[in-house]
Design goal:
Elements (H helix, E strand, L loop, with lengths): L10 E4 L9 H28 L6 H28 L5 E3 H34 L4 H4 L2 H26 L8 E2 L6 H5 L7 H34 L4 H30 L7 H25 L2 H15 L2
Parallel strand pairs: 1-3
Antiparallel strand pairs: 1-2
Helix pairs in contact: 1-2, 1-9, 1-10, 2-3, 2-9, 3-5, 3-7, 3-8, 5-7, 7-8, 8-9
Length: 310
Amino acid sequence: MKIANYTEVREFVFQGFSNFQEHQLILFAIFLTLYILTLAGNVIIVTIIRVDHHLHTPMYFFLSVLSTSETCYSLVIIPRMLASLVGLSQSISLVGCGTQLFFFLGFAITNCLLLAVMGFDRYVAICNPLRYSVIMNWRVCTILASLVCASGFLLSLAQAVAIFRLPFCKSLIEHFFCDVRPVLDLACVTPIINDILTLIISLLAITAPATFLFVSYVLIISTILKIASAEGRKKAFATCASHLTVVIVHYGCASIAYFKPKSENTKDQDQLISVTYTVITPLLNPVVYSLRNKEVQDALRRVVGRKSLP
């Protein structure tokens, strides 16, 4: 489609949290605190899993990969957002915006797919325990983790290339980072192809894994209910509780963000949803897996006790 009479934009400016001008320092302090807690929590999770041999299992291998991905995901978004809150940088180049969108989407899709793989791991552990060590051997775990990461960044690359082939007529991004919809809103043309591609990627990255997880947990719960002893049922539920909590929040936020109908009057609501899945959700992973997981708590005590010995 040919476009006439437009000035090509080479740099974007974030609107950020300008609607909350008088509260920006408070927001900076809150987001910085949450960011530090997120980094510390995920680093602690990865370190404990690496150091404590009791956690050298497929379940915790995937958890360490998820924590690493969540850490990188936070690094892509939050430092620039914090800088804009204190007035250090409100603009970003076209290349910088494309790079941010590519890595943001890559890690976001990877996280969704990783949660599905972790659900498969729980399904095998509970529904087929006698063959668990054969099915979920280290070679299979490594291949699954590699495929998930490669798929996430291939889908992200397709989305980023499709978006940044468009001409842009406006430079003000009504958001605090380069997300798909706010960037597409700046295009000089109606991005029909991009909207279709966004829907396809959303179905592949959110709907398909969520459906797989739903079926997996139906089978898991039906298997748990058949366990004769109450103690056995309780232990089986405990192994899934942390993962299921993260899944519900993670896919819930992603579904609201990418399947919600477009509206002209919900910019503040969109920012609130984005804050949830860029700031709150990465913190949820270490909090849930440390507060609700006895094995991680015991491993932390062993590691701390070992370090405190003379």
